[in-house]
Structures are given as structure tokens and as C-alpha cells.
Amino acid sequence: MIGALWTGISGLASHQTALDNESHNISNVNTVGYKASRISFADQMYQDRIGKGSKVLDAEKLYVQGNLKLTGVDYDLALSGDGFFTVLNTRTSGTSENLYTRAGNFRMGDNGTLQDAAGNEVQGWAMRSIDTNKDVVSTNPNVDMFTNDYTKLLTSKVVSHSNYIETITAKATDYSQLAKADSESVFSGAGGKSKSAKISDVEALVSSYSSWLQKLKDDPDGGSASSTAQISQINFKSYDKLDNSAADAVDSGLISKEGDQIFVFIDGNKVSQNYISVTASSDLNNDGTTDDTDHKIASRIETYKSLADKISEIPGLRAYMAAEGSTGTDDVLETDDSFTLSTSNADMIKGIIQIESLVPGETFTITEVGEISNNNTIAGAYQTGTAAVQGTGIGALESARDALSEAISGKQQDVYTTADLELAGTIPYEYSMTIYDKELEKIIPVPNDNGVPPQAVPITIDPTNGGTEATVDSFIAAFNTAAAASNPNLLDYVEALNINGNLVIQTKDDNFDVEFSGNMQSYNKTMLTGTTTSGVSDTYADSVSSPDGAKDYVYMYELTDGTTGSVTITNPADWPAIATAINAEAGLTADHATTTASTLTVAGLIASGTLYEVDTELSPLDKNNDYSGRAGAGAEFIELVNTIDQTTTQSSLQLRLDTLGISDSAFGEFSVDSAGVITMKQDGAEFAIGQVSIALFNNNRGLNPSGDNLLAKTNESGEPIYNLNNDKTAKIEGQTLELSTADLSESLVNLMVFQRAFEANAKSITTSDQLLNTLINLKR
């Protein structure tokens, strides 16, 4: 009978535990993600086949799917299926451990990370830090993230690769407002475009870029090859050959009067230009007179240039007057010829126009070229020198991107007219610039002395060609010679061109987006007249008996072997001092003789030389702001690629876009897809910035409840398993919470059952007590 007492006590204890468990279920009936638990009873040991009561074998969590409730709260997440969110619990001791939960009532923490209600940081595949050298393409070296200035969203796509996810986004400043028409007086026939044409070019390239990005999204891990832009040439056969005699000016064509026309069919559309009659201002065919032949040459050139300008207005095309390279000198188009921009009359009269597609991989078709006069038509020639080639994958996308960024930004073009240069009386010149060097990633002066910091060392330009009249062409020749010898090589950054009689200094193709600040200066100086005997001497006679001691003297020379150099004499006392200074120069000798005038003779292997009397001060020459600008729309472009690497270990998920280096504006519209990919939408662009990971366990019931809706792994549960892209795990529902699986009605029924069982066990104890009391009373 005493044993029955202990049996009853075990029943009381086990059912008390069951009552506690059921009360816990009831208390968590509204706890998000709570999984109800149940008690597993077992009978106790036996003696003589009689059991000794009950015990609680296990209090197990039932990992069944809870009902989902749509909350509309951005950061609320629910799991539909097997798996657990992972959170990092940082303890005050500094150690940390990963815990697991089904409760998805998350939030953005003060530090920008995704956290649970207790402040534990949600774990997943975080966004890789942005490498500004590899992940950002910007036409402004000072900008490596999106700012409020970039108001034009060009395109944005999330591309899922086999083991990483990337977002490719491109924006621009407002090119529709910033675009400016190229000056017709400077850039006619040289690829010049109107404002509307520049905007149309950008829009055509945006369409191409977006199309290639969509193709990459559809086939993210395919091959890669760059695209090639088409380049074609057209040629009109009616031209006057420019030669040294009037007899060689051959009129071989039709157009010669108003009403005549030249035309070309591009993609089935006729582009035509009526004959433009102008008056020549100089002797264009070098016959010694300016006559009707010269007027006709000038008129035809103007007509050709105007047709090129019309072609340049077609979206996605650029046309310019071209000269044949060294392999093509017969005025016949051949595919192995090379063609370059030229606005010299000798080249333009040949009627060769080069047409380029600005959209890589896009083909345009020329079907007819010709001239019309008095209902007679003479056919011209046309060919495609470089065919359009469509690339694939990331290579094609990069080709489209580079073309787009160039159309948005464009080469910087500093224009100096002949009036701006003051060629007649301000020679030689000095030129230097400051420019952003992409390799050094900083602005430097070019040329410079290689000091720390580097100091500008301007090049000296002598466009007089040994004393002859200075021209834009001689200026460019002298510029290129001096620039090539500078350190760093100035020609690595910019090039000088003669475009319609104007000096244009512009960035090169490989650094079109770089901005520079040119510093052109000229001396207040006088060129002293001399007599040059090639290979023998230069003789200069001045009308004064001694030089002006307040001025410098510069002797610039070229030897017969091509060597160039200069000697500068600062504040000389007399002509012998100048001769002495020149004598110090290798290969040169100078003599001074005094007669009625001072005479300086410089001997040696002189091909040409020039002596200048120079004021000590330099005068700046400003570029022409009316004509200068950028060949593109003059706006700024930035492409940013941010990547989620799914091969990395788990880490906390940062949500602030400024902390991530994507935008200077921190917040966006948060959302999560079914695979756990977190996106932040800002100003129309959607950035994939992380992926919530879902942990799987071999034995969910082996997890150890830790409070605060958290579970800890145990040896029984095993280590968490993470599948790439959360494959074969629960699906994540955004703006949704999983409700508690505690069933209130079932728990209340269980309470009554356990209560009755408790009472019955108590009754067995009282019954045993009464029996014991009866036995005791028998002794009395």
C-alpha cells in the first residue's frame, strides 16, 4: 500500500508537468512563430509485473506549419515550409552565437541591419563591398555612388547567376537639359550635332543598353563577346581636284548650280542636300587667282558638309568629312583604306563622307548614293569598311554601356579660333593643363617636373615654322612635336585638331570622359627678322646697337637632322651676351659684329631658326567659351554593380544604401522575394542588397528552446544546412507573419483532462491512506 502512495505521487508530478506545458501553450497562443509543445508520458519501472507509476518522457515541440497572416508591414517575414531564420545573438561578454527562429517580426536596427524584436541581427548572404575601381563606371571621378544629381534612371536589373546575384543600375544627370548644340561654324562637316540630335542619340543608346541588360538577365551565364559598331563611307564623284595649277582643276561632276542635289539612301530613307552656292575667300586650287572655279569648289564643299550634318541628325549616326589614309590616295573607296576626320579643303573636295553608327552591333544599310542635275543622275560609291558585329553577354553589355556613357558625356573640346590665338603677333606659346589621371586616380599637371607634389612645366610652341607665317596647321604641328617630348606625354591625354580653321584640343577616345583645364599663354614678343641659309647660318640684324635689357631673347631652332631646341637669354647686357649663350648649345656657333647695326650670326647645321625679343610676362589666352564644350550631351553617367555572393559565410544584413555605398540617400522601399532576396527600391531603381538564409536541420525536435522565440542547435539536432539560393527550403512570404500553432480549444480540453487525471492520482493517494489507516486501527 505504501507503494501505491508513491505511484500516485508520480502521477501527480507528471500531470503537473503536463498542466504546466499546456498553460505555456495557452500563454503563447498569440506569440509569432510559436510552435506548440506536447508532453509524452511513459510508465515507470515494474516490480513483480506491477508498474510503479508514470513519468514525463519528453516535452517535444511540434514543428507543424502555422497559419499565415498578411500584415502589410514591410519587414514582417514568414516561412512557409521547413526551415528557420538565423539570427546572431551577441552577448555582453563579447562572444556570439547563431540561434534560430520561426518568428519573422523583424525591423531595421539603429545600425541599419535587419534585426528581430530582441535586437538579434538576421543572418544571410550579405552584399559584397563595392569596389569603386571594378564595380563603378563613372564619368565624374569624384562620384562613386548615386546622388540626387542623377535624376535620369536609364535602366536597372537584378541578374541571378549560378552562385551570385548582381544588380546593374545606370543613371545620368539630366542630359535633356544639359545638352548643347555644337557650333555650326566650327563643327559643320565634322560630326557636329544639334541639341535634339544629341538627346535622340542618348535615347537610342539607352534602348540598346537596356536590351542587352535584359538579354544578360535571361541568360546570365552565357558567353561574352564585345560588339562592334558599323563604319561606312560614301563618295561623290563630282569634285575639282586641287593641285598647283589651274590646268589641273578638272570639273568632272554634275552639281554646279542651285537646284542640283546630292543624296544618299540610309535604311530606305533618302537624305538629300541641295547645292549651296557660296563665294570662295581664297585661291582654293592654287592657280594664283580666286575665280569661278574656286567658288564652285567652295560651294561643293559646303554642300558635302551640309549633307554630313543632316546624316548626323539621324539618331544613332554620326557623319563627317574624311580623308583617305596613306594606303588610299586614288579617291576610290576601298575596304583596306583608312579614313580620318579632315576639314581641309584639299580633302573635303573629294566628297568622302564617313558614317559611323553610335550603337555597337546595330546595322544601317546604304542602298544608293548619287547626284542630280537637270534630271541627270550620276551614281556615287559606298561601302562598309567595318561591319556591325553583335556581341554576347557581358561583353556586349559593356560595349553598349561605353557607347552610352560617351553619348551622355562626350569628349571635352576646347576651341580656339585664329582670333583667339592671335597668331599674327603672339608667338611662341606655352601650354599646360591639369587633368584627371585614371591610373593615378588624381588630378595632375601635364607636363610636370615629377616633383612631390608635381609642378607644371609648360610646353613651348613655335608655330612660325622657322620664321614663316603662323597658321593653325603650323601651330598644331608645333604643338604635337613639343607635346610628344613632354613628360608625361601630353598626347597620351589630348589631341590637337584643325577643324574648319579652328584649333580644337580635345580628350582622346580612351579617356573621353575625363575633364581637363587647359592653360594657354603667349609672350608679348617680337619676332626679329633674319635670313636663313639652310645648313649654314641664321643672320639677324637689329636696328639698335644693343638689345633691350628689360627683355628676354629666345632663339628656337631645328637642325638638319631634325633635332629641335631653344636657347633663352634672360636680361642680356648686349648682343655678345646672346652670342655667348648660343655658343653653349651643342652644334651651334654664334658671332657678333658691330656695323651700323648689330648683327648676330648663328652657324651650324641649321635647317630653320627664329629669334624673338620677348617681354618677361606671359598673357593668358582663353578658349572660346561660345564654341567650346563637349561632343556629347555634356551630362554625367554612372553605372553601379552591387553583388550578393552566395558562396560566402553568413553575416548580418545591412539595409542602409548609404552604408552599402550605393546611394547618398539611406532608405528605400524594402521587400523580400520568396527566395529571401532583399531589395531596396529607390527612385525607381531596385537594388538587391542581401539574401535572408534559411537553415535546415536533420532533426528539428532536437533543437533546444532558449526563450525569446529562439532555438539553439544541439548534438541531437545536428549542424544547420544552408542550400544555395535557399533551394528546397521554406518559401518566404513578405509582409506576412506565421501565427502560433497553439490551439486554445485543444489546450483547454487538455487542461480538463490533465486536471481530472491529477484529481484521480490524488484520489489514489487518499485511498491508500485510508487503507493504511484501517490496518493501523486493527492493532488497536
Describe the structure in your own words.
The protein is α+β, with helices and mostly antiparallel strands and 780 residues long. The chain is elongated. The two termini are 19 Å apart. 39% of the residues are buried. Helices cover 21% and strands 35% of the residues. Strands 7, 8, 11, 40, 41, 42, 43 and 44 form an 8-stranded antiparallel β-sheet that branches. The protein has 5 domains: 2-64 and 741-779; 68-128 and 648-738, no CATH class; 228-389, no CATH class; 412-523 and 623-630; 526-618, Alpha-Beta Plaits (2-Layer Sandwich).
Uncertain ranges: 240-252
Q: What gyration radius follows from the Cα positions, in whole Å?
A: 43 Å
Strand content: 25-35%
| Secondary-structure class | alpha+beta
Estimated helix fraction = 10-25%
The tally of helices reads 12
Counting DSSP E segments of at least 2 residues, the number of strands comes to 48
Largest sheet, strands/sense/barrel: 8 strands, antiparallel
Mean of all residue-level pLDDT scores = 87
What would the principal axes of the Cα set say about the shape?
elongated
The total tally of domains equals: 5
The rounded distance between the terminal residues' Cα atoms is 19 Å
Please tag this protein with its features.
780 residues, alpha+beta, 5 domains, eight-stranded antiparallel beta sheet, seven-stranded antiparallel beta sheet, 12 helices, 48 strands, elongated
